[in-house]
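Table S2 (continued). Query chain:
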Amino acid sequence: MNDSDALISQARSLVADRFPHALGALLGGSAARGRASATSDLDVVVLLPDGDPSRREVVRHEGTLAELFLHTAEDAPRHFERDRGLRRGTVLFLYDEGLVLTDPRGRLARVREQARAVLAAGPPPLTPDEGERARYLLTSFVDDLADTPSTERGEQLALADFTLREAAHLLTAHHGAWTGIGKWLPRRLVIADPTRGGALLEGHRAVAERADPDRLVAAAERVLHLVGGPLREGYTHRWYA
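Corresponding output:
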């Protein structure tokens, strides 16, 4: 049995042991794609009968850490819409790309089709206020990054991180594409725009490896010009509606 088969077997055992009443379950993440490392955890979606509490749990099963996404068919659509509102699609992608572990009566398949419909619709566009705020924030981070001396490495690295994050936020939104956090931010970024996204990542690496902000500043400025240009004077944000 190879490592991938072993993880799938562990996931099936986890569901059978802890959720014998489950209507269905699937395995997502790197384990489902055959890309798991020695320290990878299990991302397991479990569809529970209506009335069971939906929740997210982290457990250890047979020595392996597992993150559980527990939903019912009744409340899954609410989770999908929340996921869409965050523009990350974390749970949606688990349902879309996951490996089915059990689905004896086809309930999981029906919920999965609901998730795929939401995923196909894409994330909501930024509102005008959200777009202006994102432009203003990115402009501020770019200005500060360009002005920060390389001797202030802590400040420079923090600014590079925020610049990448805000630029990715704007660029994925411009393309109507899903974004992400953690390791999923660079993955979603290059899916949305291989050229501009790749330039942002290379610029971020240049700051980290060589204390050189010029490439990241230039890449972020290209994103700004794509969405209306830098925003400094004239920006207004009301504290209360």
